[in-house]
Amino acid sequence: MAKENIEIKLDVDSSQVDISEAKVDSLISKLKEANTLTDVLASKLANLTEKQK
């Protein structure tokens, strides 16, 4: 299964950023969950593609 790296760059004024550690931890958790779901979907799609051949 091919993996593609996606880079997101944000240009933010640091004086406007006030993020608590809990919010960061929550975001990291959500990103990990989304990554897992993406892997599952990619796997299922690959299986469906194989079955159609």
Structural overview:
The chain is mainly α and 53 residues long. It contains one helix and no strands. The longest helix has 32 residues.
Structural category is: mainly alpha
Q: Helix amount, in percent? A: 55-70%
Radius of gyration: 17 Å
- Structure annotation, total helices: 1
- The total of beta strands comes to 0
Order of SSEs, N→C? H
- The averaged pLDDT comes out at 86
Q: Beta-sheet strand percentage?
A: under 5%
Query: Regarding quaternary structure, how should these chains be classified?
Result: single chain
Approximate shape: elongated
Cα-to-Cα separation, first versus last residue: 17 Å
Contiguous low-pLDDT stretches (5 residues minimum) are none
Largest sheet: none
Structural descriptors:
single chain; mainly alpha; 1 helix; 53 residues
What's the SSE blueprint?
Elements (H helix, E strand, L loop, with lengths): L20 H32 L1
Would you summarize the structure shown here?
By secondary structure, the protein is mainly α. 60% of the residues lie in helices and 0% in strands. The model has no long low-confidence stretch (mean pLDDT 86).
